[in-house]
Amino acid sequence: MRVVAFATLGLLTSVFLAACGSEDSSVDNEYPYDPDKTTIIGGGNTDPVETPDGNDCIDIDGACVTPQDDCGDDGTADVIVDDKGNVVDVICYPTSGAPVEEIPAESVPVEKTQNGSVVVLDAADDGADIEGDLSVDANNVVIYGESPDVAVIGGDLVITKNNTTVRGVRITGNVTVEYNNANLVFCVIEGDLTILGNNNTIAGCDVWGSVHITGENTVLVSNYLADPGPFAAQGLVCNDNYYVMDANADGVVEDDEIGDLIQCANKAE
Q1: In principle, which of 57, 72, 165, 186 could form an S-S bond with 64, CB 3.0–4.6 Å?
Q2: Among 155, 125, 157, 124, which residue's Cα sits nearest to residue 143?
Q3: Domain span including residue 49
Q4: Does residue 222 belong to any structural domain of this protein?
């Protein structure tokens, strides 16, 4: 377990370069997810399938979905769909060329990281991997955890740059998305969620606090939210979001705690 009072994911330091052994992003790394896998979120079944090649596609209720167009034939992708089966976002995960940074790591500070990095929280059930608040101020960063049960940010998460993806992570505080094109997938947010930037996607997450959306083109799909809504924002897309009450205060969604489908509105309509 790593103790950090306040951490920032920004430019890579020489200490980290020395610890990783190379600054060459072309060096192959072991990624925490399988290549050539696609997960559909919003279509009912979230079991990964093989990413198609060439002109092949994944059939979703008659719609032909081609994640390889965005992520490559061997790419790892999350495909987010609306209630009609239309693709509303494709999230790609690097499978080559991106440096991998593991947290915790001996003698390696978490304060700085490189644009385009994949930051991996360990799979040990040992409390918070990062204790305290975390600010992401590098672009194109993936923060990846095996599941919210073991991958924990023990404070607030603030996203201050573009193209951040957080998957399989628990955040014990609030989450604020200040910039654009952020993705939060299969996460647990114990505090509030505030979306200020544009083109951000929240999919497959549990949010136990309030939800505030002022940015444009937010996508909310297959989330459990303790805020009953309704929500309205410019370009807002919603599918399969349910109100939940944590009656026993255990931070886990039980079947009997799932309420009504949450209503959303696109202010442009």
Answers
A1: 57
A2: 157
A3: 37-93
A4: yes
